[in-house]
Leucine-rich repeat-containing protein 20 isoform X5 (Erinaceus europaeus), 115 residues
Amino acid sequence: MTTFCQLQELRLEGNFLHRLPNEVSTLQHLKAIDLSRNQFQDFPEQLTSLPALETINLEENEIVDVPVEKLATMPTLRSVNLRFNPLNAEVRVIAPPLIKFEMLMSPEGARAPPP
């Protein structure tokens, strides 16, 4: 059986995904994950347990709520791209003072340009 435990980058953009398998939490060396242009409505919480993760791209999904407190405790996180997600106002307000990483968000109500 192939093991992906050494995997450092995972690109799953544009795959109609709405959830991640729990096995993702075994990717202890993962540094970057691209989940853009999928159908996530909930932030994939498994990502918050990955110790090496630096970059999360969730651009163009349907995410409303983000576990800001959990993200704030991730030691290596540098960037979370949440552009073109219908984020709730609370996330926009509570995130900036809590986080040390870059969180990219579109203006409220912005829609992604058609492909």
Observations:
- The chain has a mean pLDDT of 92.
- The two ends are 38 Å apart (CA to CA).
